[in-house]
Design a protein that fits this description.
With 93 residues, the chain is of the alpha+beta class.
Length: 93
């Protein structure tokens, strides 16, 4: 999905799920994708799709990885945070 070019287009493209992701990151600063899903109450199947859209629109950005679990093995989870533009969108709404 192409990034909206006007504020009006951006507001229209920020579905409930996408906006809740921004709100959750505004409240918690950095979260793993699974934590974002849980806090924003979005379906697991759309989590990566919504995160990739918000990342491509420069509203969120990955800031690192974190191993999860007792033994800290396997594939690390990606940590996300809001960009300055993402903070501005939340503050304006």
């Amino acid at each position: 999905m192409q990034k909206p070019t006007t504020d009006e287009e951006l507001q229209a493209a920020l579905t409930d799920d996408r906006y809740r992701i921004l709100e959750v990151l505004a409240e918690h600063d950095e979260l793993r994708s699974s934590e974002i899903r849980d806090h924003a109450e979005i379906p697991d199947g759309s989590k990566h799709y919504q995160l990739s859209i918000l990342d491509s629109w420069n509203l969120i950005t990955p800031v690192g990885t974190q191993y999860v679990g007792e033994h800290e093995t396997g594939i690390p989870a990606t940590l996300y945070t809001l960009t300055e533009e993402g903070h501005a969108v939340v503050e304006e709404s």
